[in-house]
Amino acid sequence: MKATLITGASSGIGEAFARRLAAEKHDLVLVARSEDKLRGLRDELMAEHKITAHFIAIDLTAFEADKQLFEETEKHGIEVNWLINNAGFGSMGDFAKLDLDRELQMIDLNVSCLVSLTHRYLQKMRERRSGNIINVSSAAGFQPIPFFATYAATKAFVTSFSEAIAEENRPFGIQVMALCPGSTKTNFFKASNIDRALQVKGQQTPEEVVETALNGVTRGRTKIVSGWANYLGAVMGAIAPNALTTRFIAKALRSKYQGKE
Ligand SMILES: NC(=O)c1ccc[n+]([C@@H]2O[C@H](COP(=O)([O-])OP(=O)(O)OC[C@H]3O[C@@H](n4cnc5c(N)ncnc54)[C@H](OP(=O)(O)O)[C@@H]3O)[C@@H](O)[C@H]2O)c1
What we know:
- The protein is of the alpha/beta class.
- The chain has one domain (2-258): Rossmann fold (3-Layer(aba) Sandwich).
- The chain contains 9 helices and 7 strands.
- The protein has helices at residues 12-23, 35-49, 65-75, 100-128, 149-169, 188-191, 206-218, 228-239, 242-258, and strands at residues 2-7, 28-32, 53-57, 79-85, 131-136, 174-180, 223-225.
- A 7-stranded parallel beta sheet has the order 3-2-1-4-5-6-7, with helices on both faces.
- Strand 2 (28-32), helix 2 (35-49) and strand 3 (53-57) form a beta-alpha-beta unit.
- It is globular and about 60 Å long.
- The chain binds NADP nicotinamide-adenine-dinucleotide phosphate.
- NADP nicotinamide-adenine-dinucleotide phosphate (NAP) binds next to helix 1 and helix 6.
C-alpha cells in the first residue's frame, strides 16, 4: 500500500493535512502521541472518504522512535510516498531560565526526528524514483528571535536543510519542500506554554496553511511561506541586519521575560 505519513496528525496543521489529503484519496499513516484522537480521526476519515488509514501512537522524542516508526511501516508493507514531517513545539522565555530538558526535547522533535525520518524514507523513495517530502518549518526561522531562541533556530535548520536536500534529490524525482507558516490557529501556543497575549493578530487557519502547501507542491516549490503578511515579514527579515532585528525584538520582550534585571 502506498501512503502519506503525517507526524503530528492529532491536531492543528497535521490534522488539516490529514483531512485534506484524505479527501484527495491519499491513504494515510497518522502519527502522534494521542492514541484516542488518532483512532477517532482514522475511523472518521476511513468512513467518510473510503480510504485506508493507519495510526501509530508514539512519542517521537523517545529513544529510537524514528527507527521504530520506520520499521512499523516496513513490517506492514506500507510504501511511504509522501512524508509530512509536521510534529513540533516551541518555548518562549529567557533561554538561561528555560527548562534545559524541554529545550533539548524540542531539538529532538523539531530537528533530529525530522532528519532521521527524512533519511530513512528517502532511501526507499530513491529506489522508486518518486516521493514527496514536506517539512513543516516556520516564518520564525527567517531570523534569530530573542526569547524564542531555540525554536527559531530549529526552524532555521529545517528550512536550510530542506532547501539543500531538495536540490540533491531533484534528479531522483523526489520533491522536498519547506513549509513556513506564520502564526496559525492551533494548539501550538498552549502546547508551547506561550502567553495568549503574544499571539499575533490575523492568524491563519490550518486549512489555509495546507492549501498554500499543496499549491507549493503543485508548483514544484522548495520553500513556501504561508500568508502574504508572513511573506512580507520574511522578506523584511532577510533584508534587515540580524543585529538590528534581534535588538528590536529583545527590546519589545525584555521587560516581560527579564523584568528589571
Ligand atoms: N501554530 C503556529 O502558529 C505555527 C507557526 C509556524 C509553524 N508551526 C509548526 O507547525 C507544526 C504543527 O504545529 P501546530 O501549529 O499544528 O500545533 P499543534 O496543534 O500543537 O500540533 C502539534 C502536533 O505535534 C504532535 N506532537 C507534539 N509532540 C510530539 C511528540 N513528542 N511525539 C509525537 N508527536 C508530537 C502533537 O500531537 P500529540 O500531542 O498527540 O503528540 C500534534 O499532533 C509544528 O512543527 C510547528 O512548529 C506552527
